[in-house]
Write a structure and sequence with these properties.
heterodimer, A: alpha/beta, TIM Barrel, 10-stranded mixed β-sheet, two-stranded antiparallel ribbon, 11 helices, B: alpha/beta
Chain lengths: ~300, ~850
C-alpha cells in the first residue's frame, strides 16, 4: 500500500472546497515560493520544530538524544545543527510539546481511518477531503492511493495544487478527484521562476490539461491567485490572468487570495529573513477583481463573491 | 420595538432587585392566625395560597399591557420562609455582596429580625430535611460530593402544555368536582386523602381567579382616574381581559398571554420552584389565536409583536429568589431558568415551525433580555431556515437561543415510558432537561461531583481535604494492580455515594409530599386531578427524579491519565501519583505538563480517552437509571452543571488530568477547558460517544469567534455543524460567540460592559455579574474558530488561537532533503533540480516589496 509524508491533518476545514472538510497536508513541495506561509511544508523530510515559550528546560530531550545534539546552556535549550538528524527522540519525551517532529510517514489506510471519522459532517454539508500541501502531486502514488480509497469510501475529494507536476501524473491523478483548486501564481515565466524557483510553462500547460480532464469528469475547477503587492497585483497581471483563464473552455471561476502575514513568525524562528511581503491595497485588489470580472470571469475574494460597485 | 416596549424594557433593566418581605409577612400572618385550625395539610396550603392571592399587592405599571408581578413591583423578590427562612446575616450578605446583590430595605431587615425568623424557626423544610439526613449523607454533602436542591426550594421543575388555552380555571374546577364525585370511600383507602387534595385544588383555582379579579378592579380604578383617553382604553381592555381569564378559556392572543402570566405567577408564588416553569411551546400554543386574530382583523402582526414583547419583559422583571448558604455559591444568578421552546415537532409529528416561530425569534433578538431564556428545538423535519435564523441571533453574541435535538429528546422520553404524543409535546427546560410538558414531574435532586468520587477511590474513602471518612472503604490504592481494579474501586465508591444520595432523596420526597403539597401546581399537571393526588406525591402522569452528573470531562481525563501513565506506560506508580496529587503537583511541573500535553484527552475524537468516557458513563448510568423514586417514578441521569462545576472544583483536590486543586471542573459534557485541540468536529464526535438517548439531557458548550459566523455561507456551515451533531444523536449544543478580547475588556471595565450577556451553562447571564472564577473559566473554554492556518487558505480565520501553534518555531532549516522512505516518490516526481536559479528572488532589507509592481509594461 502506498505510503507518503504528511505534516498535518486538519479537521473541520471550511474554506478549501465545499462544505465541512478535512484537509490533509502532504509534505514536500517542488516550489519554494518567496511568500510561502508554511516553510515546514517544503521539505519532504520530517523536521524538528521547537516552541521556546513552552519549554520547561527539563532536559529530558538532552538525555534522549543519542546524537548529542542538545544541551541546556543558561536558560535556553541549544541545538547543534551539525549533529541533529531530525530523528525525533527529543519530541517523544518532551512533556509539553515544545519540541515536535513535524511530518511523518503514513499509509493510505491510516489516513482513511482519520478522514472517515468526519463522514457525518461531509454527508450533512456536501463536504469531503481536501488534499493540500506542500504539493500533493509531488507524491503521486500516495495521492492516487488516497483518492482511490476515498472514492471507495464514498468520500468526495478536492486536490489543492500548484499545478507543477509531470503531465502523466496529472493525467493519472486528476480524473480521480471531485474538485481541483489550481494556483496561478504568476503569468510571466521569468518572474514565476524568480519568485517560486520554477518556471510556469509546465503549470500553464497543466492548467489547460486539467480544464479538459475536469470538463470530462464533471469535477469542479477553481483557480486561485495569491495576490502579493508589487509582485503580481498590477493591472497587466490582471489582464494576463484574465486572458489566460478566458482562453479555457469553460473559463473557470477564480478566487483571489490576498497575501497574509501569517507566516512571518515562522520565518523568524527559522532564523531566516522575514520575506517582507504585503497584501495589495483594497483599491488594487478591487481593480484586479474588477478587471477579471470585466472579462466575464466569476470572481471571489477569499471565497466571498466580489461585487463591483 | 415600539416606544412603549422601549420604555418598559428600560424600566425593567433599571429596576434594582430587592428582597420583598410581603410574601413572608402574609404567610406568617396566615400561619399565625390558622395555627390551631384543624384542617388537612393540603387544604391549609391551598388556603395559604388563596390568602396570598387575596392580599398581595396588585401592581399595574405605566405602559403595561400584560399585568401582574410576583412581588409588589418589578424586581421585588419574595422569599419562601416555609422552605428556608433567610437569616439577618443572609440578608446583609445579599444587600452588600458585589455580585447578584439584592437590596434589603431597613424595614424588611427588621421584619425578618423581629418576626419572621423567630416564627419560622423549627418549621422550615430546610430544617426538617437536615434533621432527617443520615451522618453519611451529611458527610458527603459537606465534602462537596453532591448538592441538594430541595433544601431551600420546592420540587417544581415542570413546564406547561396547551391545556390552559383550551380550558379556563372554572373548567378545571368542574374536573375537580367530577373527581370528587367519583371518590370511592368504601373501596379506596386513600379516598379521604384524595378528597382533601381535591378540595385544596378547588380552593387554589378560586384563589387564582380572585387574583385576576383584583387586577381587573385595579385596572378599572386606574382607568377611571386616567386623563389620557388612549391609556384609559388600554386599562379598560386590561380589566376586561382580567375579568375573562383565567376563569374562562382565552378567546384571543392577548387573553392567552395574560392567562398564562397569571398561571405563572400562581405557580411561582405558591412555592419557590426555581427551575423552569414556563409556557413551553409558545409558538405552537399561540398560533391558533394569532391566525384567528389576523383573519378576523382584531390583531395585526405589530400588535402580536408588542404583546409578546410586553410578555417577555414580565419574565425579566422576576429575579430568581435569592438562595442562602452553599447554594448561593453554587449558583449565583438572577435567572429563573424559564426556557421557552420554539420549533421542533407538533404532537402529531409534523413540523411545528410557523410564521409565529419566526416572530418569536424576532422578539428574542430585538429585546436581548436576560429572561426568559429561549431555545430552538431542531428536528430533521424542520427547515434549515430555522437553524439559520437561530444562527443569526447566536452570532450577535447574546448566548441565546440554545439548540436542542427534538428528535433525540422524543426518543429519550419514549425510552422513559412516555406515549409518543406526550413525548412530542415535551421539550427542553431549565438548562437542558427534558420533560413531557404538562404531564410530568421531572425533578432535579442535586448535582453529583464525579471527580470527587475518584479522589475518594484513590484515598480509600477518606476525603484528603478534611481527613474525614466520606466514601466507603475500597482498599489502599497501592493494591490496585490493574486499571480494572482501580476502576472497580471508583465504581464501588460511586454506587455507595449514589445510594447515600438516593436514600436522602427518598426521605426528602416524603417530607414534601407530607408537609408541602402544591395544590395549585397540581391543577395544571395531568393527572393530578384525575388521581386526586398532589404533584409532590405522585399525581403527575410521569414522574422522574434526576441526579445531575458533573465533571465527566475531568474524571474521564483523570482516569485516562491513570490508565495511560500508571498501567500502560509505567511512567509513575499509583501511590506516587496519588502523593503528587496530594501535594497539588508541587515540584512536579514536568509531570503535570506531560499530563496536560502528552496524555489522551476527551474531546479529540481519541478512542483511548473516549473509551474511558463510555465506561464512566455506563458506571454512572448503571448506578442510577431505572431505580424507583417514592412517587411511583424512576431515577434518570442527566449531565449538566449550571455553575456548580466551580463550587465542586473548589471542593476537589488536584486531579490526574493535571488540574490544580480548587480549580473548576469541566462543565456539562464539554471537554476539559483547553483540552480539545482538534477543532469542533473532533469535539462533537467525542461528545457523541456518550449515549445521549439514555439520558434526560446533556449540555455541550462551544465558543466560537464572531468571524466564524460572519457571512450567510458561514451560517450554512454552522447549520450543517449542528445538524451533524444531531445526526449523531447529540442532545444539545450552545454557543458563545464572543471573542476573548471582548471578555477581557469587560473584566477590565465592567461598568461599560454591563450589558454583555454570555452563555454560562444552560442559561445566559450578564458576564459582569458572574463570579471571577466563572468569568475566568468562560475565558479559557476552548475557542473553536482557531484552525491550523495553512498557506493562503485560512484567511478568514484569524480568531484568537488556543493552541499557540502560530508561535511554533521551526528547528534548524535545511534545504529539502529527500525522504529515504518508501513513500511513493517516483521518478515522475520533480527531481531536486529546482536549484535556486541565478536571479532568484532573495530577501533583502533594502528591497521594499510592498512597493510598485515590477511586471514589465505595468502602467501603474
Amino acid at each position: 500500500m502506498a505510503r507518503g509524508g504528511i505534516f498535518s491533518i486538519q479537521r473541520f476545514s471550511l474554506h478549501d472546497g465545499d462544505g465541512i472538510r478535512t484537509t490533509v497536508f502532504l509534505k514536500g513541495c517542488p516550489l519554494s515560493c518567496a511568500w510561502c506561509h508554511n516553510p515546514e511544508s517544503q521539505s519532504v523530510a520530517p523536521e524538528r520544530i521547537y516552541r521556546a515559550e513552552r519549554c520547561l528546560l527539563c532536559a529530558r530531550c538532552v538525555d534522549a538524544c543519542e546524537h548529542g545534539a542538545l544541551s541546556v546552556v543558561g536558560d535556553r535549550l541549544q541545538l547543534d545543527r551539525t549533529r541533529c538528524i531530525d530523528a525525533g527522540a527529543c519530541a517523544l519525551v518532551c512533556p509539553t510539546g515544545a519540541t515536535e517532529l513535524v511530518g511523518r510517514d503514513w499509509d493510505v489506510a491510516e489516513v482513511v481511518r482519520v478522514v472517515r471519522r468526519d463522514v457525518p459532517f461531509y454527508d450533512e454539508s456536501g463536504g469531503g477531503v481536501t488534499f493540500s500541501g506542500g504539493e500533493p502531486l509531488h507524491q503521486p502514488e500516495f495521492l492516487e492511493g488516497l483518492l482511490r480509497a476515498c472514492r471507495e469510501e464514498g468520500i468526495r475529494t478536492t486536490v489543492d495544487t500548484s499545478g507543477h507536476a509531470p503531465p502523466e501524473v496529472v493525467e493519472r491523478v486528476v480524473p480521480l478527484c471531485d474538485g481541483l483548486l489550481f494556483d496561478v501564481k504568476h503569468t510571466v515565466p521569468e518572474l514565476h521562476q524568480h519568485y517560486t524557483g520554477v518556471t510556469n510553462e509546465q503549470i500553464l500547460d497543466n492548467l489547460a490539461r486539467v480544464r479538459r480532464i475536469t470538463r470530462d469528469t464533471g469535477a469542479s475547477l477553481r483557480v486561485r491567485v495569491p495576490l502579493v503587492a508589487g509582485v503580481n497585483d498590477g493591472a497587466e497581471d490582471a489582464r494576463r490572468v484574465a486572458e489566460l483563464l478566458a482562453s479555457l473552455d469553460p473559463p473557470p471561476p477564480v478566487d483571489l487570495m490576498p497575501y497574509l502575514e501569517f507566516g512571518n513568525t515562522k520565518y523568524e524562528r527559522l532564523g531566516r529573513p522575514v520575506p517582507g511581503f504585503a497584501a495589495p491595497s483594497d483599491e488594487r485588489r478591487n481593480a484586479f477583481a474588477a478587471l477579471l470580472q470585466g472579462a466575464g470571469l466569476e470572481v471571489t475574494i477569499r471565497g466571498e463573491i466580489y461585487e463591483h460597485v | 420595538m415600539s416606544e412603549r416596549v422601549a420604555r418598559l424594557r428600560e424600566r425593567s433593566q433599571a429596576a434594582v432587585p430587592r428582597v420583598s418581605a410581603e410574601r413572608a409577612r402574609l404567610l406568617t400572618e396566615f400561619y399565625a392566625a390558622r395555627a390551631d385550625q384543624a384542617v388537612s395539610t393540603p387544604v391549609l396550603r391551598a388556603q395559604a395560597f388563596a390568602y396570598l392571592m387575596e392580599h398581595k399587592t396588585v401592581w399595574i405599571g405605566a405602559d403595561e399591557l400584560i399585568v401582574g408581578e410576583r412581588g409588589e413591583a418589578p424586581r421585588a423578590t419574595p422569599t419562601f420562609p416555609e422552605l428556608c427562612c433567610h437569616t439577618v446575616q443572609d440578608l446583609d450578605i445579599l444587600d452588600s455582596r458585589e455580585k447578584i446583590p439584592f437590596r434589603v430595605a431597613p424595614e424588611v431587615r427588621s421584619y425578618f429580625e423581629e418576626t419572621a425568623i423567630s416564627f419560622w424557626r423549627g418549621r422550615t423544610m430546610r430544617e426538617r430535611i437536615f434533621a432527617a439526613m443520615t451522618p453519611e449523607w451529611l458527610a458527603a454533602y459537606e465534602a462537596g460530593v453532591f448538592t441538594e436542591f430541595m433544601e431551600q426550594r420546592a420540587p417544581g421543575h415542570t413546564v406547561l402544555d396547551d391545556k390552559i388555552y383550551r380550558k379556563g380555571m372554572l373548567d378545571f374546577a368542574r374536573d375537580i368536582d367530577a373527581a370528587l364525585a367519583g371518590l370511592d370511600f368504601l373501596g379506596d383507602p386513600r379516598a379521604w386523602a384524595k378528597q382533601q387534595e381535591l378540595n385544596a385544588m378547588r380552593i387554589a383555582v378560586h384563589g387564582l381567579i380572585r387574583f385576576a379579579e383584583r387586577h381587573a378592579e385595579h385596572a378599572e380604578a386606574l382607568a377611571a382616574a386616567e386623563a389620557d383617553p388612549v391609556r384609559r382604553g388600554e386599562l379598560e381592555r386590561i380589566a376586561a381581559v382580567c375579568r375573562h381569564v383565567p376563569a374562562h378559556a382565552p378567546r384571543d392572543f392577548h387573553e392567552a398571554l395574560q392567562y398564562y402570566w397569571f398561571v405563572h405567577l400562581g405557580v411561582v408564588t405558591e412555592l419557590n420552584t426555581w427551575d423552569a416553569f414556563n409556557p413551553g411551546h409558545i409558538d405552537q400554543h399561540l398560533l391558533p389565536f394569532y391566525r384567528a386574530g389576523l383573519a378576523n382583523g382584531s390583531l395585526t402582526e405589530a400588535d402580536a409583536r408588542e404583546l409578546l414583547q410586553c410578555f417577555w419583559i414580565k419574565f425579566n422583571n422576576q429575579p430568581a429568589p435569592p438562595k442562602v448558604g452553599v447554594t448561593a455559591a453554587e449558583s449565583g444568578t438572577y435567572t429563573d431558568f424559564a426556557l421557552l421552546n420554539v420549533g421542533g415537532l407538533r404532537p402529531d409529528g409534523e413540523d411545528a415551525t410557523s410564521e409565529l416561530t419566526y416572530l418569536v425569534l424576532d422578539v428574542i433578538q430585538e429585546l436581548r433580555l436576560l429572561q426568559p431564556s429561549s431555545c430552538v428545538l431542531v428536528s430533521r423535519k424542520n427547515p434549515d431556515r430555522l437553524l439559520r435564523r437561530a444562527g443569526k441571533i447566536i452570532r450577535t453574541g447574546y448566548g441565546q437561543p440554545s439548540l436542542f435535538n427534538h428528535d433525540a429528546i422524543i426518543q429519550e422520553l419514549v425510552r422513559h415510558g412516555k406515549k409518543i404524543e406526550d413525548a412530542r409535546a415535551g421539550g427542553a427546560s431549565g438548562c437542558v432537561e427534558i420533560g413531557a410538558f404538562g404531564k410530568e414531574n421531572y425533578n432535579l435532586t442535586g448535582y453529583f461531583n464525579l471527580p470527587k468520587v475518584l479522589e475518594l477511590a484513590l484515598h480509600d474513602g477518606i476525603d484528603p481535604r478534611s481527613g474525614k471518612r466520606v466514601g466507603t472503604s475500597t482498599g489502599d490504592a497501592a493494591s490496585f494492580a490493574t486499571f480494572a481494579d482501580l476502576f472497580a474501586a471508583f465504581e464501588r465508591q460511586l454506587r455507595y455515594l449514589i445510594d447515600v444520595k438516593i436514600r436522602g432523596n427518598n426521605v426528602i420526597e416524603r417530607l414534601y409530599a407530607e408537609h408541602m403539597p402544591a395544590p395549585f401546581l397540581s391543577v395544571l399537571i395531568d393527572d393530578c386531578i384525575a388521581r386526586g393526588t398532589d404533584y409532590h406525591d405522585g399525581g403527575a402522569r410521569y414522574d422522574s427524579s434526576y441526579i445531575q452528573g458533573v465533571g465527566i470531562g475531568t474524571v474521564t481525563d483523570s482516569l485516562s491519565a491513570l490508565s495511560y501513565h500508571v498501567y500502560d506506560h509505567g511512567t509513575i506508580s499509583l501511590p506516587a501519583f496519588r502523593a503528587t496529587l496530594d501535594l497539588d503537583f508541587k515540584g512536579e511541573e514536568t509531570l503535570r505538563q506531560q499530563l496536560l500535553n502528552r496524555t489522551p484527552k476527551y474531546g479529540n475524537d481519541d478512542d483511548y480517552a473516549d473509551a474511558v468516557l463510555r465506561r464512566v458513563f455506563e458506571a454512572y448510568f448503571g448506578a442510577i437509571d431505572g431505580r424507583p423514586n417514592t412517587r411511583g417514578g424512576r431515577y434518570r441521569i442527566n449531565l449538566l452543571p449550571t455553575t456548580v462545576h466551580v463550587y465542586f472544583g473548589s471542593c476537589t483536590g488536584a486531579t490526574a488530568d493535571g488540574r490544580h486543586a480548587g480549580k473548576p471542573l469541566s462543565e456539562g459534557i464539554s471537554p476539559v477547558q483547553g483540552a480539545d485541540r482538534h477543532g469542533p468536529a473532533a469535539v462533537l464526535r467525542s461528545a457523541a460517544k456518550i449515549d445521549h438517548l439514555r439520558t434526560g439531557g446533556t449540555l455541550l458548550n462551544q465558543k466560537l469567534t464572531p468571524q466564524l459566523l460572519r457571512t450567510d455561507a458561514d451560517l450554512d456551515k454552522f447549520a450543517q455543524l449542528v445538524r451533524s451533531y444531531f445526526r449523531l444523536d447529540g442532545h444539545h449544543i450552545q454557543f458563545n460567540v464572543v471573542d476573548a478580547a471582548t471578555l477581557r475588556a469587560a473584566q477590565a471595565d465592567p461598568g461599560s460592559n454591563r450589558d454583555l450577556i454570555v452563555r454560562v451553562a444552560g442559561y445566559s447571564d450578564y458576564f459582569c455579574d458572574l463570579s471571577w472564577a466563572l468569568q475566568d473559566e468562560i475565558l479559557v473554554r476552548s475557542v473553536l474558530a482557531s484552525f491550523v492556518c495553512t498557506a493562503e487558505t485560512s484567511a478568514k480565520r484569524q480568531g484568537p488561537r488556543s493552541d499557540e501553534s502560530w508561535r511554533l518555531a521551526l528547528g534548524p532549516f535545511r534545504r529539502p532533503a529527500r525522504f529515504a522512505l518508501p513513500c511513493g516518490l517516483s521518478k515522475t516526481a520533480a527531481p531536486p533540480t529546482f536549484a535556486v536559479p541565478t536571479g532568484r528572488w532573495r530577501p533583502s532589507p533594502a528591497e521594499p516589496h510592498a512597493g510598485g509592481s515590477r511586471v514589465p509594461g505595468d502602467p501603474s
